[in-house]
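Supplementary material to the annual report.
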Amino acid sequence: MNPALATVAALTMRFGASGPPALDALTAEIPAGMVTGLIGPDGAGKTTCIRLLAGLLHPTRGTLTVLGRDPVTQADAIHARIGYMPQKFGLYEDLSVIENLRLYAAVRNLPDADRAATFARLLGFTGLAPFTTRLAGRLSGGMKQKLGLACAMIRRPELLLLDEPSVGVDPISRRELWRMVRALADDGIGVLWSTSYLDEAEACDHVLLLAAGHLLFDGAPGALTSRVDGRVFQVRGIAGNRRAVLRRALGQKGILDGVIQGRHVRLVAAKDAPPIDLEALKAGPEAALVAVPPRFEDAFLDILGGGPGGVSALARQMEPKTPRRTAVVEARNLTKRFGAFTAARDISFAIRQGEIFGLLGPNGAGKSTTFKMMCGLLKPSAGQALVDGLALGKSPGAARARIGYMSQKFSLYGTLSCRQNLEFFSGIYGLAGARRKAAIEGMIDIFALGPHLAASADTLPLGFKQRLALACAVMHEPAVLFLDEPTSGVDPITRREFWTHINGMVERGVTIMITTHFMDEAEYCDRIALVYRGAVIAIGSPDALKDEARTPETPDPSLEEAFIALVARSDREEPPGAAA
Amino acid sequence: MNIARIQSLVVKELLAILRDKKSRIALFMPPILQLGIFAFAATLEVKNVSLAVLDKDGGKAAVELTQRFSGSPYFTKVFSLADQGQVAPTLENERAMAVLVLDANFSRDVAAGRQATAQLLLDGRRSNAAQIVEGYAELVVKQYNDDLYAKRGLPGLPATLVARNWFNPNLDYLWFTVPNLIGMLSMIVGLVVTSLSVARERELGTFDQLLVSPLSPWEILVGKTLPAMILGIVESVAIVAAAILLFRIPCHGSLTTLAFCMVLYLFSVVGFGLFISSLCNTQQQAILGTFTFMIPATLLSGFATPLETMPQALQLLSLANPMRHFLAAVRGIMLKGMPFDMALDTVWPLAPIAVVTLALAGWFFRRGLD
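Predicted assembly:
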């Protein structure tokens, strides 16, 4: 390994006397000329670790050295030699791109003579040159992150600390960020990249895997994935319901983990487990078990001892929905104009009952606009959004009573207790009396909220917040559930649990519409609409999209590669600027 | 309108405020502190005046007049100057509010029964206070004149003006300030509770959650209005109680009439608060919006400066200000015993103000949906 730029030994950080430490006896090194991934779900201690390295926090115990100095006593000397990009960009949103750069140049004492050349180099590097006069607040999520990176790079740092640079960034921008960071590492800079997306671990040279303040793994990502070598399979050629196959597989002894990947089901077998019984999965006569290369996440789940079971208690207590032949959710020529700008143009699709339908697209492409029109948060300029046959515009109350909605922010009332949140949401959905009581008790039971009932929602651990948010969204047994990046940042076990519930509800006839940047979530969809420049450029199952993007160069594209290829194809067919 | 759904909203709103320690403090501390601070700091009287005397005469009459100034309760600090050259610096450095200059032949003129002149120089930079001090000084001099007439057996001036201050016979400034504070503090409470509520929910994303629920915008509006009214009424009752029991302000009118006006007033304030809140996306904007409203509302209320002296346009504008109407009523009810029908005559404009602002707020709740 390259020489270490920063070393930490037995580093412990506590906030407040009670509760577990945010970081517990961490010992690790950050080498030069490499991308070190600081990987773990929200609340694992990533931000705490970065802030300690940047000298913004003083550790409770333990030692740390950054560039040969002690951040506790010599923070200023370190600040001159590192670049730090905090989670919330650290940009001034009311200043333009170039003004932000000038400001950081002044703050970091970049000599006047060097400024023009530095700005030109950074703008070229980040591809922001055409947007120098645009306000930072008006940039898309991906462009903001690139500008943040440029600001952190004003004086060529020896060590670059990036706190979750890929949050809220679409796959295309994410790939560009990685390309930039890669170039910096090749240039000899040490990069620390923190993320909750486990798939990014594989792109790192060196990984520090954190969970709840503990270091679970330290080394090259391949070294971790190799522990599950030969234990990862895909069930291919499934006839019939792949969600039922997954449920049966997770019930089988010796299967640690399983997820849906388009039309296939991916399974991880436990160490020394008997071979997987394909017959018992009832996957149809064509079904075959194919060994596939392991991923980082498979290995992570292996360390944690596997995911939860495949049966959803939530779905089990739900009344099955009356089958409907017609579309449950329908977009009819939806158009949204903001002044002269058309954010969504003539969007149509129909979602069958019991389907998981995903809306994907780059930042600012009209995906959120469409999603908001579908759940009634935005009124379309033209066209109609129908839920369960009811137009959201005409009978909003009746249509909305059939919707459940859960956003990435979880939208709980933070000062209300867990029980009070349940009472509130059951109340506004018109549940009353014995039915309300039964619904609340049912949710407490299913999501194991019992021990946390009196705690304010703000103080709940992230996993429980997510469970509570789902409970509040489904208590009234909606026919349609709208999900906005529902599992971003949560740990993989909670994410599995979440999808078990969703899959279970879908089997009961609930229809799901989801928007996400997270390809793992997209793989669960039955169909995906790819929205780009305000229009649907592709629609179909994840595998159909992959097929569409298949080329001799990429014979087996991932969903992310398909996404990028299809957007690029649309750009070729209709170059940007040609469209109105 | 679905009563059960609204009830859920009201309970949620009250819990959200009362369960949070910071909100509790923000809600209850400022009125208590402000009542204490304003009541004693916002005195409109001029007390503790310092007066410099340049006595060029030194005679008996001059000394006596100077002593009368020292003896008056208003002039607590009286000191002498040695020569004319000290007059300007004394005023300039604010060592004294006023300088009394007595001519060299002051005592001689008084003794001879001729007109004697005492000159009073005032610090005109503090024009209001200067006028009041001038009034005090005239009172002292008039008293001195009257005594001189009496001593010489002269009849005195043929006609005298005797002023009686009705409704506040002793001109106790607290009687004026505290009823006004009732209006002002109730407004602060009403605005703080409401202006932050919608903006906070927008910021945290919970407002979207409400908008996708079966709640109609009008139900949300009622669900936001009622909790603010409940908290506003509780605090206003506390403030009125403090005014009567602690500050011993008389309440000549009926408390029921006062309560009626208060409820109407709070409705209009809550309307403004929700209107401001519905326009804002962040709590920061809501706070700025509240201040932008509070300051002109106070200035155009007749609290500090009389409305009658303002330009016509501002007087018209002040008609939209709930505080203006309520202050007239609260002073009238407490100090003059204003009966219900007269109070109604004073406060009825609050009803249209409340209707318009609440309707606008309801309208703007759905902003962003279009």
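Residues 262 and 273 of chain B are 16 Å apart (CA to CA).
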